[in-house]
Amino acid sequence: MNSIVATLVSGILLGSLYALMASGLSVVWTTLGVFNFAHGALMMIGAYAAWTVSEGMGLGLLPGILAGVATAALCGIVIEYLLIRPFYGTRHMLLVTVMTTLAALIILEKGAQLIWGAKLKQLPRLVTGDVSIFGATISWHEAIIILLAPIVLLLLWRFTAMTNRGRSLRAVGQNQDAAALIGIDVPYAFAIAFGLAAALAGLTGALLGSIRFITPVMGSEPLVKAMIVVIFGGLGSLGATAGAAYVIGLLEAFLILWIGLYWTPFALFLLMIAVLIFRPNGLFGRA
Amino acid sequence: MTALLSVEGISAGYGAITVLRDLTLHVGRNESIGLFGPNGHGKTTLLRTISGLLRASAGRIHFDGADISRQRPATIVNAGLVHSPQANTMFGDMAIAETLELAAFAPRARAGAKQRMEQVLTLFPRLAERRKQLARTLSGGERQMLSIGCALMCDPRLLMLDEPTLGLSPRLKEELAEAVGAIARSGVPLIVVEQDVEFLLALTQRLYMIEHGAVSREIDRNDGLDHGQVMQLYFGQGGEA
Predict the structure, then answer these.
(1) Is B157 exposed, middle or buried, given 0-12, 13-18 or 19+ CB atoms closer than 10 A?
(2) CA atoms in the 13 A half-sphere facing the CB of A211
(3) Is residue A71 part of a domain?
(4) pLDDT tens across A25-49, in order?
(5) Measured between beta carbons, which residues in chain B are less than 8 angstroms from residue A177?
(6) CATH architecture, domain B5-235
(7) Minimal CA–CA distance to A27: which of A192, A188, A165?
(8) Is residue A283's pLDDT more than 80?
(9) pLDDT tens, B128-161?
(10) Which of B74, B88, B94 sits opposite A184 (nearest CB)?
(11) CB contact under 8 A, B105 and A168
């Protein structure tokens, strides 16, 4: 019984992290039609920037998290401007941006290695101490991540559904000419979408840096999981992406319980391949 | 007084293909003009160049005295020059009411957006009935109404309509023609592209015939040309009147 509750809680925690990551991928995809392979690296940049401000300069964790979000957003805007915008509207743009965002991933990972070195780093927790949920014990920091993720996702959904600035991002993704002709500045919308997604990645990284080690490659595993999430849920809608993130998080937690840590990635990728074969638009995606 | 819109000697095209060659025309203040001519001779390209979707390789475009030939579409819309393109599908996954709200995006269009929304829904009752429907579920005629409705939400000082009745049934065509007439009577100057010369003559003061990417003839309604004579010009000597 206890292990079931503990697994549920750790599944929800994983789901929260995947939801924060995958929603950024979804925003970029629905606006630019680009899959950003540097998304995990932006998460890592967020964690390192948070560490530099919080620990390196000793300014505290909250300013650190803010710095992590801002630095990741800035990097995202620069990546969009230098590595995606020049190829917009060209032939094979999707394939070319696979390469350019992979290049950004490599630049960021190697850059982080040069700047911050190979030594493992970790952030302090937002709140110390543990909390017990129906007999399962997790740290307060993890509990805050679980509570914060739905709030952030709800705000993001409200932004894209209820505000004209947020709607403009969806409009640009659906019909660029029509968007431009009602006065939406298309390149500006690209920058906002990319910056926003990078900010979400940076937030995830800054939060994750307290419960995992910060390394130059810390973003690759969450990115792979977020990829499974978006393949599972489709990239088109925020709700489906977030829902799929929690499903994958829970599934991963229970698979670890049932078949162990070693076979879990294997099972998840098997599932991903099955979805790609039988439901190529995602389980909740439109055909 | 200077013209509201003046297009001076523009050339434009797609890649290596030149569509417009040294085209010049103007729209005075308080007048509407019509553009007609054979398909594929540059009418749509002309509107796309004026609205900034396409950059002219030569020539100048002035709107209300300001040079807009190097401006982005968003800036041009915010100046009040608005283009409702041909067969515009708008945003498939967005509801009608949401799309119309979004269309008041330009800073100049924000004031009075609610009021204009009501005007648009009165002008197109079909849109009012389908307020919550997604754009991709609309018929061709309803999409055209949505496109024109969005253009009106931009609070245009000059509205460019590209074949507003293209491919519609006679009944819908009449409905849209009436709506366009109502827009003209409300005091919004128009540039209308249409094949139906009679419709243009009733709606506008002057017509330009566009052939091979340039103006081949200018027709003033006061010249007293009747429909038959215009048709003769259109189809050339021996053409059917």
Answers:
(1) middle
(2) 21
(3) yes
(4) 999 999 998 999 999 999 999 999 9
(5) 53, 85
(6) 3-Layer(aba) Sandwich (3.40)
(7) A192
(8) no
(9) 999 999 999 999 999 999 999 999 999 999 999 9
(10) B74
(11) yes
